[in-house]
Amino acid sequence: MFDLEKIKEGVRLILEGIGEDPERLGLKETPIRIARMCEEIFRGLLPPEEDLLKCIEGETHDEMVLIKDIPFYSVCEHHLLPFFGNAHIAYIPNGRIVGLSELPKALDYLAKKPQVQERLTSELANLLMLKLKPKGCMVVIEAEHLCMSMRGIKKPNSKTVTSAVRGIFRKSQTTRDEALQLIRGKG
């Protein structure tokens, strides 16, 4: 799917456009490095290599599961600059559970494409509901956007926080509060 030659040519044009010489020793290999980087950081544009959120056969559980402080990296689709931070994912199984590594894998897959944080948060919550059919889920993402930190308004270290709540987390303030307390480390 990735057209490495097109990416390389695009990078060469950008370098020329900013007044650089793409043949300069330090830049000569930059177009191919950027093309290979694109294959890696935009892998989420391709179909997943394996099923996302595979349930564990024979295991059941019906109380909250939370993985917090999951680091992730994505690229803002408006400026093609990184945004990065931590995600917190909670769900209450309706009997079906997944291996703990499945949740960060799903986050990484959805983050590896030109993205906005709001959509990433919702896509992850929707995927959990679709695949696990839990009683509910909650996704909270905190991220720094380099398009705000290093350009534009230049506000480094500012964090954007988004959340998506589904099912019982939306209906029950108590359940939502329990998850937030656990995320904050007060539970």
What are the key terms here?
5 strands, GTP Cyclohydrolase I, Chain A, domain 1, 187 residues, alpha+beta
Can you tell me about this structure?
It is a single chain. The model has no long low-confidence stretch (mean pLDDT 96). It contains seven helices and five strands, in the order H-H-E-E-H-E-H-E-H-E-H-H. The longest helix is centred in the middle third of the chain and has 16 residues, at 117-132. Strand 1 (65-76) and strand 2 (82-92) form a beta hairpin. It has 187 residues and is an alpha+beta fold. The chain is 39% helix and 23% strand. The radius of gyration is 20 Å and the shape is elongated. The chain has two domains: 4-41, GTP Cyclohydrolase I, Chain A, domain 1, CATH 1.10.286; 65-184, GTP Cyclohydrolase I, domain 2 (2-Layer Sandwich), CATH 3.30.1130.10. Strands 3-1-2-4-5 form a five-stranded mixed β-sheet, with helices on both faces.
